[in-house]
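Hey, can you fold this one?
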Amino acid sequence: MLAFAKTPWQTYASAWLNAQAQVVFLSTPLQGFLFLLALTLYSPWSAAGMALGALMALFICANVLRQHPLEWSNGFNLFDGAVIGLLWAGLLSRDMQSAVLLAMAIGACYAMRFRMVSTAYSYGFPSLGVASLVTLWAAIYVTLYFGGDFWSMGMRTEPSSLSLSLAGLCLLAAMLLHNIRATLFALVGAVLAGAAYFYVQDVQPSLANTLVLGFTVLLVLFSLPGTLLPGHARAYPLAALAGLITLGLELAWPHLSGLSHLPSLMAPMFLGIWLVFALIKRQHRLMFLDPGVQSLAQHLRNAKAQGGAVVLTGAGISTASGIPDYTRGDWLEPGVPLATYNYAGFIYNRYSRLMYWNSCHRFFKTAALAPANPAHLTLTALQQAGFVRTVITQNVDGLHHKAGTQSTVELHGNIDHVHCLLCGASQAWPEPAVWQHNDAVCECSGFLKPAVIAFGEDISLATWLQAQQAVSTCSLMLVIGTQVAVTSALALIEQARLRQVPCFFIMPGYPACVLTANDRLLFYKAEDLLPALSDYMGLSKAQL
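Sure. Predicted structure:
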């Protein structure tokens, strides 16, 4: 299939509609159009203000701040302008010259927005529309100071029952396109919240106020399972709690000392969401908000239905256990040329064998004392839960076995034993005196050698075929802690790519290989990301 690049105007239009979609936690241009249509049917001036606010924000980001299109094309950096414009409807309906004031308000919003966003994310909280909330509160105070009314509509026609019904259907269609289950959950909760609001009040509120309250709760209930934490194991209970908090704050707001004169706007919704995020481990929150982590969780669930993913691990997964990078050479004798340790040297040179044995013994002692770290343990839990089928590792430290991982293919062997190069028999490590004074040999007179692949030594055919077989039937591949600097790892990844298998790279830096369109790179340490991923997917502590 041919892919056509978007023209600049298509990019602008898409970003403009995306911004309006994100006002209600949606994400695509079609969903943005449906919400704009719904708002037009309900309140044309609100729709006009939202459209104008999103356009102004687009101009600021693209032309004033000169951001790269990748920074605003998904609408995320624009939706604060859409929110301000939506609530600017009263001023616009009375005097279109207030569009100049709207532009000034949006400019002020974006002067502080990015600092607010970065601060919120540094603590692992979604920024939501806090910048637009602060801007609107300030605008309301300024309007009151000059004797005006921010809310009164100069030209307003109450929507007919037909318009109200069509608006609801448009919004419902947009939400269903995004997430059916979250939409149905939010609808039920919003109806219950609206009913509670209507009957709890001493003086029964107007239908309009009840609809606004129900709409606010609808967004809260939809936001967590639909957009902020899609696929999170506890997204629905967290959303229900956020909805209850929001409803409680809405009911209590007029009675709160010092806040009764301040319109609640979106504050109860934001506080409800933030409070449930505070229940999540701080070190996990930011990763939970990463679309890459969310995508990986969904891919793992899909892979489970097809037998589980294949994982390829390298030295980076073991550094948290105190294991030096085997390929980097920390275990080698200082000042000894690297060529001394190759396979040919081991076969033909006594000095090479001595250096090889000494260095491998140093690595063996380190690995024997090293514990499996959270990354190893999480992979085991993912395997036991059916998300991972096979772990292929370039490591020789045996930590996957210590963690209890099954179906492990050790490409480069295991440092925990030695084997005979002639008959293939495995043995426990001999005492150092055995190789330091004479060559270590088997009963069959063949050389004994630490059971790890030396430089220039081929991977055994049986091991290689086992790895290829695992990759040939997988539907997802995770590449964890390896720079993909050796040909065997790259060959396995290329085998998966030929079958259009998604590959997720988890490492704090860039791999040595070129990434393709079907690859995803997550810049995290394995020992940080994998436990967060298991938490996101709801694996119990008992499984870990």
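The beta strands are 309-313, 388-393, 408-410, 413-420, 426-427, 448-452, 477-480, 503-506, 519-522. Let me know if you want another pass with a different chain boundary.
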